[in-house]
Amino acid sequence: KASLPPLKSIQANIHDYAAAKNREIETLQKNETFRREFIADISHELKTPIFAAQGYIHTLMDGAVEDHAVRDKFLNRAAKSLNNLEDLVQDLITLNQIESGFIRFHPINFDLKESILEVMEQLEGKAQKKGISMTFRYEKEASYQSYADKDKIFRVLQNLVSNAIKYNKEAGSVTIQLNAHKNHLTVKVKDQGIGIQPEDLKRIFERFYRVEKSRSRENGGTGLGLAIVKHILEGHQSKIAVSSTPGKGSVFSFELPHASKVLEVQGAKSKK
Ligand code: ADP
């Protein structure tokens, strides 16, 4: 006749099972809270540009349209709000795709120096408007071939350089430094801007976290840029580092693999 396990061991099993179930419930509850907060955040963020555009349009309809100068000003502002809305939706789609693992990374061999030059060219107008000078430091002789997802790294560079301009002081400067090491490349984006307080520094990579909401929105910020940057670099087994002195400026930096190193490793593998 089979003997029953001792009562103590049955009790212990039940106890373990209950504890595991409790942990599961806690995780589900946390996810649910996170989801609810995220939806509340999104709704709020979407409402801001929509309300602004509606406001301008209603003012125009109430008679402001008669005065041509006022009409142009309000139409421009309404258009700007709708552009912000479009950027926000685009960033949300990107973030969602990355977080759900839907986006694939397609690494290729490309010249990181060229990407930086292209981003600088694209943002030159924005910098000039604020009287900001941009400097790019690199060594003429060095090879800056990187093995990474070119388009996504372009996005990272766009975000960091555009922030360095947005949060800079009038007539400040932005310095981008590219260094080649044996196995990797380092990019540093330095500004002379408002800087970031230590308590904010920990949180700026969270979605929708902004130190100054109004300033960020005024500049067309969505509050999602750095969250996207962080995810893209994680997708490359890299990460973003930041150091900042309030009132003086910030430095954002990251590393990418050097193409020659990757090809060497791949070559070694294929020889085996
Ligand atoms: P945003 O679209 O608001 O710029 P980001 O995710 O790119 O959103 O950045 C989050 C917040 O981090 C910004 O709102 C700003 O407060 C702060 N921040 C980002 N870059 C800088 C910088 N170079 N200098 C100072 N503050 C910055």
UniProtKB/TrEMBL annotation:
Keyword check for Heme: no
Subcellular location: Cell membrane; Membrane raft
Enzyme Commission no: 2.7.13.3
Chief place of localization: membrane
Keyword Transit peptide annotated: no
Membrane topology: Multi-pass membrane protein
Gene Ontology CC: membrane raft; plasma membrane
Annotated catalysed reactions: ATP + protein L-histidine = ADP + protein N-phospho-L-histidine
Keywords: ATP-binding, Cell membrane, Kinase, Membrane, Nucleotide-binding, Phosphoprotein, Transferase, Transmembrane, Transmembrane helix, Two-component regulatory system
Gene Ontology biological process: cellular response to phosphate starvation
Single GO MF annotation: phosphorelay sensor kinase activity
Domain annotation Histidine kinase: ranges: 41-260
Protein name stated in the entry: histidine kinase
Organism: Cyclobacterium qasimii
Gene for this chain: phoR
